Amino acid sequence: MARAATTTDAFNAVAEPQRRRILVLLKGRERPVNELARALGITQPRTSKHLRVLREVGLVRVREAGQQRLYGLDARGLQPMHVWVVGFEQYWNENFDRLNEYVKKLKQKEHADGSRS
Amino acid sequence: MARAATTTDAFNAVAEPQRRRILVLLKGRERPVNELARALGITQPRTSKHLRVLREVGLVRVREAGQQRLYGLDARGLQPMHVWVVGFEQYWNENFDRLNEYVKKLKQKEHADGSRS
DNA sequence: TTGACATATTCCGATATGGACATATATTCC
DNA sequence: GGAATATATGTCCATATCGGAATATGTCAA
Fold it and tell me: I need a surface site. Which of A35, A61, A75, A108 has the fewest CB within 10 A?
């Protein structure tokens, strides 16, 4: 077997930088293909292909508008990524001291009991 | 050019499910290769190769301990992913209504003016 | 219909992948 | 030294990728 297809899930689709940039460009407003291609500085066919991948994993939607097709963001598919990566938030500043982690765990337990902001 | 190497960055390294599972298993405690292989239900060579990738992108560290090598998590490399995906948090519940987005934008502006909890 | 424009698809080549298997390297113990 | 254990590396294969270039499809307007 080779590497998993880019259309397997959001993780694979978004591993490609240009596709990440496309999603960022789609925040807030829809855009036609050519506008995206120009913004990214890549060819139109390549842009269409990236959009196809994003469409297949459901991160993007198309809407026909005359002779152009407006692409819009559907960020819901990013939620699994969000959940997964947020699970590591507490380890950013890890300095690889085992005892340190114990302390951290204890702190979390305290937190679980009473405090709220 | 083919697809970017898995060792290019965290995004690519983590696109592979087994590698994600490895990182999860490494939360909190270090583990030797064989333990990881058993936990994942994959062969030892495959596990070593996944660990190599994770090491090359800096998501994991090795520590020699007698005849075994203990792998530990270094989550700092996941921060770029975190930053990127968190930027989409506000779009989870997007229902793709343009007007809806305008409303959302206005709300953000209100927020910017006077703070409320 | 013809032409202009916007977008999608196909063909090509180079490359790196993940998995299985065999084997190499390294450490410990006798 | 030699055996046992733990880990890393190398080879094989099938497959999907990204990129470019050419071309197909689709829509509008006169």
Answer: A108
